[in-house]
Design goal:
single chain; mainly alpha
Length: 37
C-alpha cells in the first residue's frame, strides 16, 4: 500500500514540475512581449 502511495506522489510531483516549467516559460514569453511594446 505504501509503495502505491509513493508512486502516486512521484507522478503528482512530475506533473507539478512539468506544469511549473510550462508556466514559467509562458510567463517569460509574456514579459518579453510586454517589454517590447
Amino acid at each position: 500500500m505504501k509503495s502505491v502511495f509513493r508512486n502516486h506522489l512521484a507522478k503528482l510531483q512530475n506533473i507539478l514540475e512539468i506544469n511549473f516549467k510550462f508556466l514559467t516559460l509562458k510567463s517569460e514569453k509574456f514579459y518579453k512581449k510586454e517589454n517590447f511594446t
